[in-house]
Amino acid sequence: VRIAPTYNFTDDLTYNVGRHTWQFGANMRAIRNSRTSFSNFPTYSFGRNTLKGLGQDISTAVQSFAQSKYGTTATLSETTNVQNAMGAMLGILNSYSATFNYAVAGGTIPFGSPIPRKFATNEYEFYFMDTFKLKPNLTLTYGLRYGSYSPVYEANGEQVITQGNVDQYFADRAGGQLLGVPGFVPASAKLTFIKGGAANGASSWYSRDNNNFAPRISVAYTPEFDGMLGTIFGKGTVIRAGGAVTYDRYGSNMAVNFASSGSPGLQTTLSQPLNTDFTDSPRFGVGSLPTLTAPAGNGFPYTPPEIFGGFNSYSAVSPGLVAPYQYLLNLSVARPLAAKMTLEVGYVGRLSHKGLLRTDYGQSLTRFTDPVSGQSWMQAMGKLRDIFESGVTAAQVKANPGLVPAIPFIENIFPGARNDKFTGSSSANAFNNVYGVYAQSDLDALQDYDRVKRSNVRCISVYGCNTFFPQQQSGLLTWTNAGKGTYHGMQIVLRRPVQKGWGFDFNYTWSHAIDN
Questions:
Q1: Which one of 203, 290, 429, 448 is at 20 to 30 Å from 479 when CA atoms are compared?
Q2: Percent residues over pLDDT 70 in the chain
Q3: What is the pLDDT of residues 46-98, one digit of tens each?
Q4: Nearest of 134, 125, 118 to residue 29 by alpha carbon
């Protein structure tokens, strides 16, 4: 349910003097966005991507069935079809999650109860513009617009922000991995959340952006050429050109995101604590549904606990967030043709900067580099993939571990993987973990080594648990100004106005757009 009134106050003034036409104006908006969500229910499903290795007997049965149905060269997707069918027949629930909601004053909101949020922001814009007729055939238009936008805030105080700079948190993790620094080492490695927003007398997710000056200029010119230029352009030709800076409104969609996905301490989504297989997965209709323990709501400041396994994610905002802006460009030439037709050829361009993107500040450190060998995790996984692509299977490696040569990164960073599942090197066991246990999922295998404790003592990673993954979550989706894009287009318009009962327009655009 959403109610979003906008109160808009605007006034404009036009003043003519000589060859100038001056315009002044103001536009003030008070935007309110009340939302009520009912999305706080647990969910249960079967998902192959969170399925561990099937065990040798079941795995052999699946492969045999797939090969008998699809041929001796059954592909991964064909074998997966059989896995999915078996999962459905056995009623496996190996993918389940729940969203827990809390009030900023404390206390858990029961499943199924409405989650109300009311977001607010105020926007102020002012402009002036002048249309100046320098000559009868030359007109210049120029002006400046200024906007100031207050940060969006939750009007009832149900809002939290990070204590400290999440940009620094990301920079320390991303930069440190290149030097072999584990993610838990920097002082910024753990995040704490506090009450935020105007209703709590605190700063919001980002600061007010007071630097939104948007100039624009355009010119319209009817040339009077003689000789060859007169022949080319013809009488009545009009040349137009212009450029402008514009700023996007921003913040409202972000508020919607926080209303639906919540904030740490106010809303936390948890998934199954560990990957499961066919033998240890919960079954639908057998006993009770699997449960997830609700995180303790300890009020604020709130420091989420360290996790070992599991999949949860938080949302955040870069504190330096500002309004995205664009440069708008255009140039066109229009001239009359015979038979009362006109032809216009023009260029239009849009250069976008600081667009809003959600960047995962809590992603695993896949470029973590072994300081001894200089090899990164990504390079090491590439080596394993090359072996797999050559036709080597996990079963073959179990029988003959020597099929996987020693990979420096794996041997140095995961020495505890040696003899983990079978007698053999760390590299051979890592190959089996990726391609025999976790269905080719490098990241699931990495989490196994980085966050799953062996005998509840320590993880396989030589530096300890959470070397690669963040300590408090599996993802920190953060609103940033990382977007950029360009658009360049040529436009052709051939037109005959309606006269004597008929007319036509022919329009053609040839353009190129690219963004990230």
A1: 448
A2: 87
A3: 765 555 655 544 555 666 666 676 665 666 666 667 777 777 777 777 777 77
A4: 125
- Strands 95-102 and 209-221 turn out to be unpaired
Which tokens in the block code for residue 396?
Answer: 């073959």
Q: Which two tokens stand for residue 203?
A: 């700063």
pLDDT at 393: 94
The amino acid sitting at 508 is Y
Burial bucket for residue 408 (CB in 10 Å: 0-12, 13-18, 19+): middle
Dihedral angle over CA of 488, 492, 498, 502, nearest 10: -120
CA 130 from centre of chain: 41
Q: Count CB-CB contacts under 10 A for residue 346.
A: 18
Q: Is the peptide bond before 215 cis (omega within 30 degrees of 0)?
A: no
Residues 6+ positions from 85 with CB-CB distance below 8 Å: none
Distance CA 321, CA 72 (A): 55
Cβ partners under 8 Å of residue 286, min gap 6: 91
Q: Which two tokens stand for residue 175?
A: 């930069």
Mean pLDDT along residues 470-493: 94
Cα gap 196→265, rounded to integer Å: 12
442 neighbors 434 (Cβ within 8 angstroms) = yes
